Amino acid sequence: MIWTAPPDRPDQMHRPRRDSIGNDILTFGEFRGWTLLIAGAAYWGNVIRTSQSEDMIGLSSIARSIVNHGAFNIAAWAMIAAWVSQAGPRGFASRGQIAAGLAIGLLLVVPTRQTTIVGLIALGWTFAIPTGTGRDRQIATLLIALAVEMVWTSTYLLPLHSAVAMLDVRVCEAILGLLGDGIQAHGNLLENARAGIDLEVLSSCASSFPLAGVVMAFLVTMIYWGRLPRLADMPWLAAALLASIALTELRLSLMAQGPIDYTWIHNGEGVPLYTLSATALAVLFPSLAMLRRDRLPAYIS
Hints:
The protein is mainly alpha-helical and 301 residues long.
């Protein structure tokens, strides 16, 4: 006769094992972590795939593609990775949650920009569903903002940016005309006969093209400070967008001055200066909004 120890509690004597999927196999944090890992791989895979112009892809070219995509996008994913363990309720993932995660994961593994956009929005929506934590809403905001930026810079909106580019050319013509330069605008082309240069403003150079990145920078900065943007912050966001447009017009006007100016601001030492100026402006306005908010009395804010 073999003696076995009795269960600790009577209710465990006939308790069934909960070993089916979604009960005791995968925790909620693990489920979200794996889903976000797939989303991040799909997002950066699209960045690398669309930015490579060489036949051979190496570690240096991959790193360059990631860095060139934008510091605020990298910061957004770093914040998401750091906060995913703090988001959502504790416990185990349900069958429905795992089924939704599998559907989103299958969508994200399709190597297209469109499926990545839809997958990020769907994943952001799962985080946006109220769960009682602020981190959920912050992660959802960042995921949806990343998807919106992909939409804004997609080929589908290039006609819009091309139309804005023609407006930019007219603005540059007016600016340079005030300075006494006889520059003529034709469509999206700036003709400087005196300097012997014709500047074609492409859709990716239009003042509207980087605006989604400005919004992304605004969100990342404010979320890093500890909260989501509010209605009172919208004037600061508008100021950031206007500052970005003005910086683009200044850049285009400088490039139209002559071949030396074009080379300096487009491919030379002016590139880091322009990048630093754009980054500084992107951080300045949300920081000012936060500082002003902190100084206001509670009954005003």
